[in-house]
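Re: export button greyed out
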Amino acid sequence: MPELRLLGLKTRNLAPIDLHLAPGDLVFLSGPSGSGKSLLLRALADLDEHQGEVWLDATPCATLPAPEWRQRVGLLPAEAFWWYDRVGDHFPTALDPGLLDRLGFGPEVLDWQVARLSTGERQRLALARLLALQPQALLLDEATANLDPPNRDQVEALIQDYRRERDAPVLWVSHDPDQRQRLAQPMPGLSGARRLIIRGDRLEEEEPCAGPEGHTLQAQSQQGRPQPGRAGSWN
Amino acid sequence: MELIHLSPLDLGLAASLVLLLALLSWRLHLGVEQRVLIAALRSAIQLSLIGLVLNFLFAQTSFAFIGLWTLIMLGVAGWEVMARQKHRYRGAWGFGIGTLSMFLSSFSVILLALTLIIGVEPWWQPQYLIPLLGMLLGNTMSGIAIALDNLSRQAWEGRGRIEARLLLGQSWECAIRDIRRDSMRAGLIPIVNSMAAAGLVSLPGMMTGQILSGSPPMEAAKYQMMILFLITAGTGLGSAAAVWVGSRRLFDHRQRLRLDRLTGPAP
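Workaround output, generated via the alternate export path:
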């Protein structure tokens, strides 16, 4: 049962953080851009220098070789980078085709050229690339930022199932208040989500913004970038 | 064929051609006359001085003194490698990586050449050691400078790709493998090209010099072949060492990409 514990984790912009994610926990993280959300995730994946310690179950990060830690605590960065020409070369050879199928791709996608992928396709395939390694905990940096609603729903469902099936704790940076609200509701077999927000240099619980439409819209305006694909839902 | 000595008058005649060029530049308003004259004067002074120094040096038999001179040559070459980097390594590494790689490659290759191939007695006889080392260092320096520049520049620009590979649990060696290979190749291309063109397009400087000083062309060609092989080996070994140490330095003990160890705008 994987659980993630942050003990006095200190990154550049934030005060030391103590945080506990029990197995299967979902924690949303939001805050103004530049407040250090991505840096926090990078520190958790041990990609940046940091003070304090992170534990996965009984294993502190520093005692595992870094590549093994990053394989167990999988980070999906906001921007998906690819280094070979062919999509399939980025995946392990023994790949469960069901994973691609759940994201709306057929097996032929492995032969596609990376250069011809759209931004959304890159983002979904990067998630597949990460999940194919079966990390025990997930760190998601705006996993659905470039997706249209059907694809966004697919990704959300996939991540919820990953939580349910593997008891994986998930720390998810999301700018989308609707998404945070939607997934905060408990579902069959799944607990709801905690929502944290960065104010100044601290993490605080986000106030519930359920209720009148006006609230949602106000929260929406905090977003860094508009999402034209979603505007329809308020009309 | 005897060595024909050049008199001051001969040199003056050649220099008057440069004066003519400067005059032409002045008449045609090319605006380079001053630069041409200064450069010609500089080369005259530098070459006269080095002639005097070599004259003095070749009369030396002390190993310590000649050794010191080779270290000065190495230091200048190491400085030059550093100066050619767009993103330099911070601290002593900037100077150290190139210098160490050249020391390992050039000095071991030249030791091999002088003891086993040419068989000079003693092997540090300056008439052989200094010019051969000069040629070797000059070429190795270019190769290493290109390889290191390639490495640091590609790491700088490819940060996202390298970190994406690290995030998927790849080791640092795996994440930088393609860039390493590419940098090695870039460092070797100039010497491979010059081997391919040797003799057909250009007569290399050393061979020309030997022919002018009266050596039979075949002997000159054999020396040229040897020096080309030595340069190739030295450049290859040097680039490999520099790329290995340089790429290792780009990652820390937790296998994080550390671009802050390079100069340039903060990543």
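Residues 62-261 of chain B form one domain. The button fix ships in the next patch.
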